[in-house]
Amino acid sequence: MITEQMIARINELAKKANTVGLTDEELEERNDLRRRYIDAFKTSLRAQLDSIEFVDGDNNESPGKKLH
Question: Nearest 5°: phi and psi at 54?
């Protein structure tokens, strides 16, 4: 799960990268935070897509196809 503090830290590191640059440790931290953010986003999106049900003109429901 991504917290507001993690997003704030990602933004801090992005600003610092654009101004003075990042140390090797900060680069590793940024990459880790970005990966965790992307993974959380993909998990959330997959859950949303998996919950979609299609309804035809006769109100017959069919579950969506699995994308993974």
Answer: -95, 140
Query: Which residue type is seen at 19?
Result: T
Q: At what angle do helices 24-50 and 4-19 cross, to 10 degrees?
A: 130
Q: Can you tell me the distance from the alpha carbon of 1 to that of 36, in angstroms, rounded to the nearest whole number?
A: 8
Q: Is 68 domain-assigned? A: no
pLDDT band with cut points at 50, 70 and 90 for residue 43: very high
pTM, rounded to two decimals? 0.73
Report the domain count for the chain. Answer: 1
Residue 37 lies in a domain: yes
Q: What is the DSSP letter of 56?
A: -
List 3's β-bridge partners, or say none: none
CATH number, position 57: 1.10.287.540
Residue 49: enclosing H or E segment and its boundaries? helix 24-50
